């Protein structure tokens, strides 16, 4: 069984995507018990016992808790595979915390819960590729690119939700009932993503196909540019990477 230290949003999404019984701990909220109730397995009161009993361990707590968690696990991690999903935590830091373990650095995103996730794995962690392919696409990257990966894939479900909210609100201001605007926008979003994929990621072609010279789409795109869409994404990336 996979053992999860922490049963929060990201660990829960992975566990649900894998869809198998788990060993899990939390820091007292009851989220581990809720996960076990859903998937089967066992809630444990002690991270060291979890690590001893798990086939592989996923670190699903917050990054700043690494040293405290590793100290609690101690020798139990000897010879184990420890998969970290901790944002901004390097392989060197992980290896220092778990010197007797095989450590893997992965950056997943929450659509793994639907097996439509994207997981980036730092080079050296290839043995985890098949596991994460069960819950979506996997990209193996040099470790130096993992921060940018986090800033463009992990955070993206939140950005897309914000974009959806803004577009739906605009539709409501334009006179659409909210439920109808939501349904229409989400269908458009899914279809547009499929179209971009079908066009091999050629964003310019997709834009040109919608944009008549001097037409309404051209006016809408210009308004988005004037209001700093590109700068907003660029600054968001810098904000994420900068911590
Ligand atoms: N959320 C995302 O989309 C996302 C994406 C990529 C990577 N990550 C990474 O995933 C990690 C978790 O993020 P999250 O958003 O899932 O946070 P979260 O929902 O707050 O979950 C953190 C979990 O860790 C548990 N925990 C804290 N200290 C613990 C300890 N000593 N022993 C066992 N469990 C402990 C918490 O317990 P309680 O439930 O009792 O509070 C909670 O279940 C972070 O390192 C983050 O960088 C998140």
Automatic annotation (TrEMBL):
Chief localization: cytoplasm
Catalytic function, reaction form: L-proline + NADP(+) = (S)-1-pyrroline-5-carboxylate + NADPH + 2 H(+); L-proline + NAD(+) = (S)-1-pyrroline-5-carboxylate + NADH + 2 H(+)
GO molecular function: pyrroline-5-carboxylate reductase activity
Binding site for NADP(+): 5-10
Signal peptide stretch: none
Class of this enzyme: oxidoreductase
EC code(s) of this entry: 1.5.1.2
Domain Pyrroline-5-carboxylate reductase dimerisation residue range list: 143-240
Pathway(s) served: Amino-acid biosynthesis; L-proline biosynthesis; L-proline from L-glutamate 5-semialdehyde: step 1/1
Compartment list: Cytoplasm
Record bears the keyword Cytoplasm: yes
Occurrences of domain Pyrroline-5-carboxylate reductase catalytic N-terminal (ranges): 2-86
InterPro entries to which the protein is assigned, alphabetical: 6-PGluconate_DH-like_C_sf, NAD(P)-bd_dom_sf, P5C_Rdtase_cat_N, P5CR_dimer, Pyrroline-COOH_reductase
Keyword set includes NADP: yes
Key words of the record: Amino-acid biosynthesis, Cytoplasm, NADP, Oxidoreductase, Proline biosynthesis
GO BP annotations listed: L-proline biosynthetic process
Gene Ontology, cellular component aspect: cytoplasm
Chain positions recorded as NADPH binding sites: 47
Function: Catalyzes the reduction of 1-pyrroline-5-carboxylate (PCA) to L-proline.
Family: Belongs to the pyrroline-5-carboxylate reductase family.
Protein name: Pyrroline-5-carboxylate reductase
Organism of origin: Capillimicrobium parvum
